[in-house]
Design brief:
Helix 1 packs across helix 15. A four-stranded mixed sheet has the order 1-2-4-3. By secondary structure, the protein is mainly alpha-helical. It is 71% helix and 4% strand. The chain is built from 16 helices and four strands.
Length: 414
Amino acid sequence: MNSFSFIFIIFVLLSSALQLWLVRRQVNSVQQHKPKVPDAFAEKITLEEHQKAADYTTAKANLGTKEFLFSTTLLFIWTLGGGLEFLDQAWRAAEWSELWTGVAVILSLTFIGQILDLPLGLYRTFRLEAKFGFNRTTLGLFFTDMVKGLAIGLAIGIPFMTLILWLMGHAGTYWWLMVWVIWMGFNVFIMWAYPAFIAPLFNKFVPLEEGELKQRVEELLSNNGFASQGIFVIDGSKRSGHGNAYFAGIGKNKRIVFFDTLLEGLTTDEIIAVLAHEVGHFKCNHLKKGVAMMSVMSLLGLALLGYLLQQPWFYNGLGVGTPSTYMGLILFALALPVFTFFIHPLTSWFSRKHEFEADAFAAKHAKADDLIQALVKMYKENASTLTPDELYSSFYDSHPSAPIRINHLESLSN
């Protein structure tokens, strides 16, 4: 261990203590407000529905705490506990080239991580989600999805990972610039390919039926210059009772997608209001802004990685005795979230800002009252808490809390 080891331990403990404290605040908040529905929602949500949301939020928080403690323990085992060093030396014994040893180590680490996460994933789906009436998937479908995801990950990930490791070892001092260009291109490719080629492997996409709803949807899209590959309904109900709507893709591969569970519970006016919100993200250039932010952050991150790969203290401080490009990459991926957690409120704030902007757009191109009604129904159907802790929300929530968001929309409807 060296000085960096102690810095790492201190940051892990500080971030862990902060996260556990925030979760306790969240649980205390929803439980303290459990006996009474907030006045703003009293006429729209029953006490039974409100209490279900409180219990669901608490159950998710408690499970999340267990998952967090488990992952933090694994982090110490892999790093300071010598787990990565053991795995690395085991593959080095095969006397392969550094490139293929790196591929093998990364694949092994990923596979072991998935196996270790499996029990909690099963519990979340078949116990927690089932207890509150949301799970609709079967054990067979659960494992089919897992196998499909693994196959896609291997088919796409192995060539990409091999290229990245090769560049790191052979592209010179400024390899990170070339990797950054390829990384950004890869992300753009995935955004383009996902809606048309990857998502249909997991769900059935059916074009929206002809009728008033489709006509109004097409009118809204046309009026706002949103050209898409189509408007689809996804069979989300075969896995979950949660509902949602989104648009995905770039260029000609953009798709508007409604969950069938969402269409079942909303009126035509409410669906249009929800869609107007999603179009608002497009018109306000939130996707482009997100890509730009990711571009800057990934460039800075890769530049930092380029520096750390040359520092023996970085490897030694995290329990690895033999420096290598692939081990440096792994250590960076494991350690970085420990230090960047403290800027999480900033990224959450930007996300909530975008949601407010999309709501404002929706209020101009639909009715704010219709979006309010749709959101209340979605809060109810998804058992979303109406009384989150403000500090917890500021750290974690990508969307404004229910009371704040509804209040904002009401101000737009006046």
